[in-house]
Task: structure prediction
Amino acid sequence: MITARTISHRYNNDLALKKTSLHIAKGEFVAFTGESGSGKSTLLSILSTLLTPTEGDVFFLGKKVQEIHDIDTFRKENIGFIFQFHYLIDYLNVKENLKIADNSISDARVQTLTQKLGIEQLLEKYPNELSGGQRQRVAIVRALINKPKVVFADEPTGNLDSKNARIVFELFKQLSEEGTTIIVTTHNKQLADFADTIYEVSDGEL
Amino acid sequence: MFKNAFRTLQKSKLKTFLIYFSLTFSIASMFLISSISHGIIGMYSTMLQTDGDIIVTQKKIADTFFSDVDIKLLQSIKKIPHVSSASAMILGASPVETLPIVAVYGVTQNRFHNYKLLQGVYPQQNQALIGTSIYKQLSDKTKIQIANKTFQISGVFKSEIGFENGGIVLNIKDAGAIFHKSASILLLTTNLNANIETIIQTIKKLDDNIDVKSTNSFVKNYNQFKIIQTSSNLISFLAFVMGLISIISIMSITVAQRESEFGIMRAIGISMKKIVWSLLVEALILGLSSFVSAYLFSLVLLAIIKHTPSLQGYVNGVISLELFLWIFVSSLLMVTLGSIFPALKAAKTDPILLIQGNKS
Ligand SMILES: Nc1ncnc2c1ncn2[C@@H]1O[C@H](COP(=O)(O)OP(=O)(O)O)[C@@H](O)[C@H]1O
Ligand SMILES: [Mg+2]
Result:
């Protein structure tokens, strides 16, 4: 599904990722753990096509990422994202945020997912009317709404209590069993145990 | 798409108003400066082109006000074949009653019919024909003091040309006494089948101190017009650049503030094309509303200027269709350029860096 070949990344002059190679299979549930600043987000951003590595190549679904013609549309069709901070669009209500990339998403789909995460009452609300945890759950629904082949989540449960955090990871587990590839970062070792594969990131290396 | 554009415009009202006002002001200044200079040039050329296919002026003269030609030349000019009429004019400006400066025209009698009488008759010696704008300002409607002489008022005329409507027409002899010359310019009309170039050459031979041109080429090459035109173009251009700079800078700030929004949009699969397009729609909404406001504002201001008595109708802006379209295109160009550059910069950055608000 995703192959990284000796990728390195530098921010200005700081080497944040050092010649990392790895392969992730379809339906695999991968967790990156490690201390803050170790390079988890950088690695996840590169694997998820959101950041161009300074060196090395990433192959996504057999295609070299840098050669994908319309990368934005490619992401819409294949990838779902959940970020450390929820990042909803503040002038759109919850429902509009969920449908922003693809207006043809059915209401039934919205219903099913929002119910699963307990936010089905919030569809008409605006982000600034929600609690941090509610916003995070909206962002999770947004990532899953168009049935992506791969879901990337950077510290997805940072704003959730342990009960809701478990619900989210159980959902990931279930999705990966249904064939969706799941790639998350977390510094919570217990949550990481839900994954099939756990990589320990330390100082820019696996 | 439009709904969202209005929402984002509404979200940051201050920014929206800043762009709206700076655009409106720069577009309005383009309208005003161009229309007024067009108006001045248009009025003056119409005046010269009335009963004048060919114009005779003093050689090497910067302004028709300074021109001095001998009226006796008229006799010889009239004899040239294919010349159908010839007249002389003095173009002067002088204090009149309490008004500091008023256009005074001394004309030969065969030009009187160009001034449409509203009341009274054309002037005899020591009489003056008064333009409507000036007449309205007189307290004594029977006589008028021009320079240090007093004239009887013979009648009132109306003209579409602001310079005439706010001026005074005298017999050329009377005007000559005020301005110390027999004529400023000679104007002649020719038969339809006349060869203008031959006539010009013939007239040139009559006097070494004169310059003879077809009125069209005179108007085209008249330095005063070129100066007005050039400075008006320059000021319009500056107004354009000011508008452009303000919209680019405000848009850059907007885009920077909204970088994470754009980053997230791209991450979840909204193409940069769509994002650039939505920024463009926002800018176009602003541009169009500023253009309409600036146009209406200019019309109102021009109407006020036209009816301000102290300006005597000399400042008379006309917004031609051509000028309208030209400024319309400039305005759209201004907002398009102003919004596209900052948006393209955002398009080139990796989404995650936009999301993190990386400023490097
Ligand atoms: N946009 C950036 N600009 C400069 N340095 C960065 C940027 N993002 C991350 N870094 C640096 O790269 C290193 C790895 O960061 P990151 O990938 O965010 O680690 P983690 O997600 O494990 O906390 C850190 O030293 C961090 O300071
Ligand atoms: Mg991180």
Remarks:
- Chain B has a mean pLDDT of 86.
- The interface with chain A takes residues 4, 7-8, 11, 260-261, 264-272, 350-353, 355, 360 of chain B (CB under 8 Å).
- The CA atoms of residues 43 and 264 of chain B lie 59 Å apart.
